[in-house]
Records
---
Amino acid sequence: MDNSIELLAPAKNKICALAAIDCGADAIYIAAENFGARKLAANSINDIKDVVDYAHKFSVKVYVTLNTILTNEELSQAQDLIYKLEKINVDALIIQDFGLLKLEHKIPFHASTQCDIRDLDKVKFLEQIGFERVVLARELSLKQIDEIKQKSNVELECFIHGALCVCYSGQCYLSQAIGNRSANRGECAQPCRKKYSLVDDKGNVIFKDKHLLALKDFNASKHIKELAQIGVKSFKIEGRLKDVNYVKNIVAYYRKLIDDLGLSKTSWGFCKIDFEPNPEKSFNRGFTDYFFDKRKACYTFDSVNSKGEFLGIIKTIGKDFFTIDAKISPQDGLWFENNSGCLINKVENNKIYPNKMPKLKIGMKVFRNFNSEFDKKLKTSKTKRKLYADIVFENGKISASDEYGHSAIVDFSPTETAQNQQKMIYNIEKSLKKSGDSVYEIRSVKINVQKVPFFPLSQLNELRRQLLTQLEKRKFSYGAKQEFKPVKLNKTLDYRANILNKKAEEFYIQCGCKIKEYAPESGTSLKNKCVMRTKHCLKFAAGLCQKNTTLFLIDEKNKKYPLKFDCSKCEMEIYF
């Protein structure tokens, strides 16, 4: 049984993808030209091919997100895209729309978290129809994940880090309802990050102008070993809109953590990280492990901006400066607990001079949400991923092999014997130990000849380049074709099934389902319907769990949204 685990990293673009690989990712997920759930993170086929070619040298896998819902007309475009992705050897597609199950494909499909995978029944259904991997909802507890693993055979992928959607993924219609921007079409306007007030039916204001739907960022680092023991296969970092420095830091942090725990990985090679990774130093809204072990305060009502790392408290305050017991550098960004912030212009004799003086008090907590020195280290990082190789120089050939069973040979025909044998041996060893732009670090060079032939340095270098180019080559083929077959579900499906095309409808009908209505993106009205169901509960946040209170959200335009509560599941619903 393969107990190795996969560290799965996000990639906004090719630069982020290559950086994630170099920092230790076992797999990458990236969007193609169309149909990814982050419309602002699209990539060309040529760029994805470059990523695949580099990734496969280390047995790193590349998954492409094709996880929006599609119209009838778009399915043919999706088919063309699948053909293109198969030609460049993408390892799998992450999908939401069941219409894709009716298309031709050799490439495996993974069920996206957008499929709303939050219980064992859903996992079993997806497994039975043919998915080899499912991406679980972030809201699940360790106990629930364990139960799912014990009672299913499908591979489980779990988020471990990054921003949290407040709603169950795939079930958020608030952006669609408010501004006709569909989260299920990659166009979410993020209304969950806006300000709202919470009032009761008597007009009492419980919270006023707060980010009531905003959550902290996810950080499950202390649960990695437990997840591995449960049998989770893939550990997923969120962040396909994050920049390359974020990707470097967070991937390196989890690579080091997983390695330190002694857990085996699914890819090859080693990374010489030349910075000390720390998630507190990258963009974060404060961290939560969400509902892994128990319900807790996972929200961040006061601000949706990056909070950063805690530095200390204000010690003294002057006219245009303040002091704290921490090392601060010019251009650092600071955040204070009164939800104000500043950039640092200069630091002299422990006095910190900001670009504008915030309203501060002695004892106020200070956080750094931009570390200029750390940012420079990440930007100038020379971290690269390498494989070890050994080279043998023999009569008429040079051979190379690596630790994963790859080998290569180049032949040569010597014309004369070197007059200075020791100097030639030195030149051969020196030339063959160089690895140039290859992914290899040469561990040893053995010369097994009685008489060393003479080589011009240029010829030696060319032979070495040919050898390492051959050694880098990888064979790729798809396994057995993935078959998707309908199984009995026998449900009546409404707008929340996210059906937008005839092929998806056909698949569900073959599963014995009745289609009551299509997805809202088809024109189905959301009036008086639930547009968000979430484990984040404002009744809990307000300390009103035991009270029979009617509550409403009111947005900045004074629009009112009724709230309903399913206390048996500790869930809240927002209606439009």
---
Amino acid sequence: MRHAPAWRTAAALLAAVVLVSCDSDDPGILGVGDELGRTALRVEITPGSVLIPWVGARDTLSASVLTTAGGTASGFTVNWRSLNGGVVTVDESGILESRSEGTAEIVASIQNLSDTAVVTVTRLPASVAIPSDDLLFAQIGSTALVNAQVFDALGQPLDSAVSWSSSNSGVASVSSSGMVTAISEGFATISAVARNARAQLEVEVDTGVAVLEVDVESIELDALEATAWVDVSAEDVLGTPVQADYEYSVTNSNIAEIVGDTTLIARSEGETTLTVRVSGTSLTRAIPVVVDQKAVAVNVYQDRVGTTAALPDTDTLESFVEFDAPVEAFDANGFTFTPDSLDVSWSNSDGEVLDLYVDSTRAAMAIIQTLTPGTSTVVAELDGAADSLTLTVEEPAGLTLEVVEDTLRLFPGESRTVRPVFSSDAETDLCCGQAVWTTSDAEVATVAAVSPATYTVEPSVFIDAQGPGTAWITATRGDLQDSVFVQVTQQGFNITVIGSGQGSAQDELALISAAATHWEEILTGDLPDVSVQLEGGACEEGIGPLDRMVDDLLLVVVNGGTPSVGPCVTRSAEDGGLPAVAFVSFDAATLTGTGSGEALARHLVGHALGIGTIDAWRDALDGLGSDPHFTGPAAVAAFRNLPGDSEGATPVPVQDDDVGDPWADYVHWSEATLGIELMTGAYVSGVDQSFPLSSVTAGALTDLGYEVTPFRLDGFSLTPPPGLEGAATTVFEEAVWPAAFRLTADGEVERSAAPPR
């Protein structure tokens, strides 16, 4: 089934009549032949006339067979033909196709019966086009001719009349030829119509200022009192220049001020906004304004404390001098500016001669330190302008170097800072001295700078403890040198070894530090830290003054002649009475000359720990004057279990040194019984294996109040080992002193019952 197009004036049935063979006896079908004379028949085409609106369009005709009685008959074959096939063709189904404009007759026939329909092909308007969608007038009375083009349904141009109209003829009128005229300000719609096709044009009439133009997007002034000129102009909606009045304003006249109508003058650094307005309208333009002074010249100068006179750009200074170097900058109009935010670029020709530090927040000033002899030039540059200081550095007269710390006790992983102190004939504790730092054993302790090399107000260094042992950290500057002795021990009982600062030397410190480490490996308990304040020389000449916290035991080493040892300060009775501060004085050459220097150093540290020197030792003695012995239960038990011949003695025999001083006797084990055990007073000269630290001495330490582990105890027997039986022993002569002071329960230092030295 086909349907006729919408433009058809009447609907047509789109079914072609198809004839099929039929039975002549069927009462509903009229026969032909001889029956034609008795039954009138006719053919009718619907519709009788057809209008086709474009070339190439199609339509459909249908034909019906009617009886004289007005009924419809079926079963007939319709033959279709066009009498003007150059205009319209028709197929066997009655389908029409237009070929060209014109008129054609279409005939439908059934045998000798026929009918004719008239088909007209003519192109009709389907669309209208106007070249523009809108039209703008800037003046009343202005005109514009608008052309409209008509097209058929196939988009082909068509010569057809167009009718024109305006939706608001009071704003814009239009003539029959498409001439549009501006009447007053406002909006109107112009329409062009051809048959049922329509096109529209929007018209605006605006005679005011439509555009405000400024010749700059932003303004930057690089000097105070610098000026800028602003050119402004106005245009109508068509872009035609028009005359207008303007108003100017700034948001902050302290930054930039308006002079006249179009001139700005810079007053101070900062940002503001210039606004231009067309008078009587809301039409404005906002222009950012920045006043940022640029340097055309700079001046860098010395600014030393207490100096008011101008200092030269080329100067000679001593090392260890620190001063500020500010920068003055001048803009193109000669105004000075030195804000902290100046992006000054600094350079230093020789970093070994001068140290240059610039804070990123205050780049307009550098801090300069004079380091080592030589000449260096510092240059400050800003915006392409530059200035410089050339300084020659000389060492001050009488320069000395001293490391603040003499000795350090550290644990692995612990760090400590030390610094070199430089002095000269004119001044002590000079600022900012630099030295070259080295370590004697990097596996024990390393050294590194605290601050970056660019600036060190306090040229301290980190000493980092690596592993157990001792090392010397040395600071060197030219021919000057000083060191700090570092002792690294594991956590537990800690014997901190320091030099007295007067005569202490590397060999003595090394021997005592190694000996202290040996004792630390069998002492496990941690004693409470105590604060000790001691005047200089109170215990022994050259010791002190002291004012520090003591962790377990502080052992002060003095380089002396005849060996001397003993506690200086013991803890309070409530705190066990064990030594807090002790001293040992000896000459390393004396000990090492025996061939058993390390063992004899351990012997001295044993006295410093309290063997023979504190009240708890004397309280455990019995049989003084006849059969002196030590009655501490742990020492006695260890003595009983010693291999060899103990001759049935249960107390531990003690040597009666008979030096005539009751405070110096009974401080060793009996050498007659225990031979060369560590804490007897005898040794075999030249034998390195002497002085074993036995379980008897470990037991005595337990009796004195220490916690002890047998980890580093030496094997010991009352029977001398092969090679030593019958060997001649040498009495080790040392002065053993009891504690001169003790701490009270309140932490105060008071003199003990021992006689003053």
---
Amino acid sequence: MKWYTFCLLSLSASLGFPAAAAGQGSRFAVTNSRSEYAHWIDLYDANNRRIDPTDPDAAPYSPRITCGRCHDYESMASGHHFNAMHSSLPAGRPGEPWIWTDERTGTQIPLSYRRWEGTYHPDDLDISPWDFILKFGRHLPGGGPGEAPARKPATDGEPSDGDQQPTPAVADRWRLSGMLEIDCMFCHSNDLAYSPETWWNQIRDQNFAWAPAAAAGLASIEGRVAALADDFDPADAAPGGRNRLPVTTYNSLRMNADNKVFFDVVRTPDDRTCYYCHTAHTVGDHAVPFWNQDVDVHLRAGMSCSDCHPNDIGHHTVRGYEGEVHPTGESVASLSCRGCHMDSEDGMGGRMGAPKPLHGGLPPLHFEKLSCTACHSGPAPIEDAQPVHTAMAHGLGLPSLDYTSDLEPGIVAPVLLQDEGVLYPHRMTWPAFWGRLVDGQITPLNPDDVQETLRRILRVRRGASLMETVSAIKLTAEDKAGVLGEERASIDEELWTQEEQEAIAALELAKAKQAWDELLAAALTTLQESFEDDGVAVYVGGGRAYRLGEDGQPEAFEHAVAEPYAWKLGHDVRPTRFSTGITGCYECHADGAPIFEGRVTAVAAVPDDQPLAHSMWELAGYDKQLLDAWNQSFQGRTMFKYAGFAAMGIVGLILLTYLIQGTYGLFASFRRI
């Protein structure tokens, strides 16, 4: 029997791969042990050739072939983190989209291959898998769009794994870069030397096939595919020359005498690995400093992410929401908040020792109208929804000097919205893009095409943003004097009061908005001239859509595509003492309570001195009069209770009096007898 039939990590067993499979003719063996398996294995390249790591011309190793000799790679590729492009699979509950941010053109478009409502499929914007990888590869573990050219093309009557084939020019790039295969070590490395930053650097260099070896520290890579011409032929490369494919030099410290390489594999991914892609935290004036923020209460209690979000060998990660249908057919009801802490459909509540909350004094109606996360998850509601940074949207996890609160794209939380009559906390963002209006429908334009068309109009310098360019307003002494008066305007700015600084900032914003309106008119005119067929040039942003009016000036109009995209949040979970409503009924049922009265202000990618703002109740679809009436009823609730108890006491005394009188009369009757 071949050696590799014994080398399947117990990872396969722990993730639910049936032990009987090996005995049923499968080449994927299991250990069925809770211990770890030591991975001293041979490396194979993408052409299934065994690699000699000491060879100076060694090829980069292929996770698909190397790991796939013992693990079911194709099954794993159908898992939740890799199957977004599999159009035949259910999309599941809408989640966080990829947000294509182009600061040069004021663009932030929510994208999803799953076609969640409110998002756009990259193909519809002519965003190829190649472009997608170069934009978002920093937080992609490979697979999906990284292997799009190798997937089955569409045929009549059959769905395809990839909706488009690359153009000839892009095909040449894939030919040189290789596929960006699923890197198992991205999640399952037990070596803290694994570097997502190195992974991203290799992707930016278009060294897709070399990224896994470099990120894991298995090899050093010299050379950049990005520096090679489209028509470069590796066969013509001069030995030792610079014009050649990247050179792979394997680390001899990871090899044994048989030239097998050691992979330090861990069965259950570390929470810090999950956090690389799933970190989210509030920023801005009201945010708790990052160093003083608490982690999820479950992690603080010693649990791990995979305790609540496990998966089978197919990597169908449980997302943990109520009503989730798992692809394996297994019930996962006990892995939702309510299913674990209360009573799940399969009677498995209380898994992993989860306590059953008492919710003393809380009327049962709350469990019908509120999700668990409405009170226990995410930042607590305050007067204004707070700006949020997420790893997927803002590139958290990579070193940067620009993690400021106004970093694009703009996302806020919490926003309390109803779904089928139940209140859930959400994160929310507003789309911004240039588009074409035809027959009432607005279609976004490819940001790169927009940049090419409007480059001379927008005049955004390299490294700058459209917001920065338009907001670069220099006030004259006359402008300042008009707001502060000549005497106050002439003193040092550092001596201005807070009110005076705010007045100057408001004037700068108003002038920036005026400059943007002028720029918008010129841009829409130029964009309109570029349309060869029917259609009206529009810009969408900040919750509004804009087009040129009859006077040649931009006019705002309402359109569904300008509405914000929101997705439910589950973490971080706050402990009971920090949950919403813990201080009493008035925390939610009082005038001005943030859970209903908190403001949600649209975030635009361009200056807006009058941004759209809505109250939570408005976005959630509640009746304000009913809410006010209910809140008013709570104002006298304490007095009503005392009055009720007093009334009960009086009635009790009256009944007691009659009881005594009746009893006395009864004994009097007996005495007469």
---
Amino acid sequence: MILGAVSFSPVRNREFINKVLVGTSMNEGLVFNDVNGKWLNGGFFLSPDLPSGPEDFCYTDTDILVLFSGSLYNKAELAASAGTTADMPDPALIARLFLREGIGFVNCINGDFVFYIEQFGVKEAYLVRDHVGIRPMAFSEGSDSLLFSSDITGLSRFVSGGRNIDCEYLMGWFKSVDKRRAPCSKVKKLLPGHYLHYCDGKVQTFRYWKPEKIKTDRSLQHDKMLKDLDSILRDAVRIRCDVRYTAGAHVSGGLDSAIVSTLAREEYRDQNTFPGFSWSHLAFTPADLKFDERELIKEFCKAKGITPWFSDLDRNDFLKKVDDSYYNHMYFFEDRVLETAERVGVNLIFSGWGGDDFISAGDRGIEIDLLRGLRFRTFLHRNPIRPVRRFVKYFLSDVVYPLLGILDPSTTRSLSNRARWLREPFKKSDRRAIRNFFFFSSRRQLHLRLLESYHIQERCESWSVMGHRKGIEYRYPLLDKRIIEYMLKVPSELLCKTDYFRPLLREIGKDLLPEEIRMNWSKYDEVYWTYIKELYKVSAEFLMEEVHVWISNPELRFVDFGLLTRDIKDYRENKLEPDVSLFFRTLVYLKEAHMFSVVYNWNR
């Protein structure tokens, strides 16, 4: 994690460094290392639990300074092009490539990274973020300086003085919001696949990764597609492995985590134990349980030599994590995973996050492509006309609504229900966010818009900061840029060779996964979701007593507290009409938002 203040004038902004270090959301147990260049006051956080030293974060000589956070996964290729060896630390290799090729070298990188570059002989600097947006980075432009930080909330807090949180940032539970926004409107996230050029006191951002230019490859054959993706997937896991780390992985009954954890375990075959972390609760069993995913996970882990760890989060722990929402970004169960990983000595977690949006995508967009390509026989095989009512339902939801930009009735109803407790001026969702997630004219455009929607990056940003505070890194092989680029050129008809839902990983997984996992059609973990409902119910009933405190919080000015208070009264009298589980979740979310603002405003 890196941060800094850049100024080409004699004024040096040391105040920024000092204030962000105090109360920053990522300094727990970390050591801050100062880095000063000709134009920069800054530095990086070093964790004693990670196998990284100062040389992995910073490089400087007489000509150049590089401040770096992340990993370069194709180092051998990059080193060869730079005329050096792969054992060179990442920041030094970045400096060498930049001096040889200019900023254009970033197109050749495969990695998760952010870095800052300044050349001492010229008054300009660069800030670069990886293609997909795995590592967080934000900046703010002042009158004579550029401020940047991996800690987006810490930077926002400094710039705003701990005041006036952007309402949209706090309303993500109630409606579709622009996830690119920071808590402070003067702070901007550096977007994925972009670099920032700071020159003459002015900021310009440029997009260097343009996946929309990738064309569909009509000559591609099914067998070659599977072979290529299998090879890329295996390599995506391999290059993210590092023997200096003790690794583990997320596990579930789903395809994405199962295939990633399987391949990661193979790479770490010499590691005595390989923990698999599940969000499903260890001891809770719902009444009338129909399917217990924990049993599937246990059998899978036994077959693969993985040690399963289930969640032990109880109500008291849950309420404490709600109080800590400023630090855990409201990912309560993942915060518990990090605590468990820390306890068992894991400092690298492999995740299947991102698979749903690319290599293991479902049916979205395929039907539109089949009709556009006049492949009516394939379309009708996938969508039989009888029964007619069912055909009409899926034709509307899979073709008409996304193509014409119409929200389906269930989504419209869900958004309306969630916005119930917002005051009228705040109810409307962000149009771009709605478009990027729900509307598309092809599967290819769907992939591109999901990248743009920022829901992928928001989780990666949050987990990056959460993990670094505890000395733990994340790896997301299914978000390797080569997988994304390959999926953009795959014709949709190649995804229709079987009747499988999410066919690619089911085909690739034939020699990797047990059949119970490979052919598991459900993504619903009944134990986890039932336990979540129970936690929200008992927590919400406790939190009803605190609403009078929230009313006095000006940061929650978007809430219709009059309606909320009436609904609490109706609930206690068994007269509440809206979805009660939604009501419970809203109360917990408001507590989260309240606590976030309390810490954000603290000691301002």
